[in-house]
């Protein structure tokens, strides 16, 4: 159970919630008892709570003197004082000993206010006691048996005693209206206190549960993000980007919602059920079978619904993935969709995915919508049954109306708590699906990772790196055709090595293998003579400056993009403050999505890199200069500008080898030439690996590697290859004029 394993990390919060819920249950379960008291004591007994009334008539006092034991008489003497008008008033001392007083006076008052027929017999017994022919204890028992008050439901006996006490009060001249109102206000007030306490506890539970849910969501997002950033290209492909996004958002949200629900409702249910059962056991057990029947119905409905709905939940997450995938593809490729008039087709594709999701959601919603009315039917049915059987008991005098109302309330509490437990059947599978999907990502073995015995400090040279491909073969994970076959070549330190070949010949693959985005299938890639699989990834990549084929920029500023710091913000860049050099305005971006402090500190390096990459002039020309805003994905700069910023980013780090993956093709010839000149001047000593389509770009390279269908078909200078490499000659002839080819040096 994934949800429980997430919760186990928040034990203290769960224990706190449990304690709060117990408190809430105590308050909630007290309420039906108060209702019962309001009806049975407040309304039926006019608020008379005690057998020993506040006021006693002289007649009853006299009767008590006859029937009570000497100890009880002494108690009575302490408890009541004559007020001089023929009425005895309860003293504070009497109130303090109320329980004993109730026991003593209850039977006496029942005798005093017995119906006329029985009263005659009482008088006879009293006379006998007075005459000394009957023992007082025995007389009391006899009279109580005659009244038939013993043996009945204790609450009924109590009711009889209280009504006698009420009659006594009236006889003593006390208004029962006042007693009733005082009782109703007092008990109602206490009841309201319990309601408020229950509400306050419920709010506290809600707060702690929401916090726990939010923390679990936050932690999972964090873990997932960390994991995904460690993924290789192949790992990402194995899940699909859309699915990773759904898992990181929708699935985690599911877990978060379910956690709150579990803590607030499902944890409360067993507490409430047990408490309700205890209360029912104390009220009356003869109608418990109705509660059992209702629970059985609730569980049966729950099981049927679960069988229908749970399989759909799993399907639903997959359908959300699909909707995300189609939407993402359509939005990313919107210009192409428009240009080729594919709106209708894309719309239909999206509708299909969306409709499938809608159908599944509708099915589950309908099934769940059916649940509530069915449950209400079960509960109402149970209420009617309890009323029907309970009224007989009320009629027979074995239960009071208020107690019946309390019984119904407790029965509903028990049934409701089983209903909530039944919800667990829906909640858990759903969160299980989401949890499994998240777990799949978290436990996915990253295909390219540091080896346990990875070498640290493998690179200590400051010179250009030596890169060697030794009999490298490589096949992409989802492909059966090798992208590289037995490729061998060396890029010497400080030299420029170009890689050229037709499309799909494996040029980008070469760069990917050096950066270790993938691991070779056979052979080895060596940097400074060390197999790249044996060194730490971070160390390897620190040696390399990489410019991808499709330049990607992050939201932030020009400076933060070149400095390689992702700002994460997508708001506008800070407005540059006044300053002599607009470049340095980047310094002002301290806390916004502008350049991070490091980017500002690195500004000279950033500007130098931008100058080499031929990006300085156009950045300067922009309002805000290096602090000017770059939109997400670099959508507010041109393709060529984007490429130059990406080149500057690679140059800004102190790399020992620069890998350009077809990075010059988006540049015009002049910029391309100027960039290569600047590179030769300012980055001398750094190994350059240039993947290119244009022969003009590679003409002056120290070494050109020609690839054809993944095989190295030629290695040499332009002149050598023109002599002895057919594939190179064909490419060159298709691109260069005779002059250019003869001249060799080209700019
Ligand atoms: N992620 C991938 N999964 C499966 N096959 C791939 C993947 N990337 C590339 N390939 C295949 O590997 C082969 C070499 O691709 P690569 O991108 O290295 O070619 P390239 O020479 O850089 O092409 P271009 O000049 O068009 O960029 C191609 O046949 C391509 O279809």
Automatic annotation (TrEMBL):
| Segments crossing the lipid bilayer | 190-210, 262-281, 287-310, 367-390, 402-428
Q: Does the keyword Zinc-finger apply?
A: no
Kindly give the membrane topology term recorded for this protein. Answer: Multi-pass membrane protein
Q: Which Gene3D superfamilies match?
A: ABC transporter type 1, transmembrane domain (1.20.1560.10), P-loop containing nucleotide triphosphate hydrolases (3.40.50.300)
Provide a Gene Ontology MF annotation, just one.
ATP hydrolysis activity
List each copy of the ABC transmembrane type-1 domain by range. 188-430
This protein's record includes keyword Coiled coil: no
An example GO CC term for this entry is: plasma membrane
Keyword field: ATP-binding, Membrane, Nucleotide-binding, Transmembrane, Transmembrane helix
Its subcellular locations are: Cell membrane
Grouped into one coarse class, the protein's main location is membrane
Boundaries of every ABC transporter domain copy: 467-734
Give the matching Pfam families. Answer: ABC_membrane, ABC_tran
Q: Where is this region: Disordered?
A: 564-600
The name on file for this protein is ABC transporter ATP-binding protein
Q: Which organism is it from?
A: Berryella wangjianweii
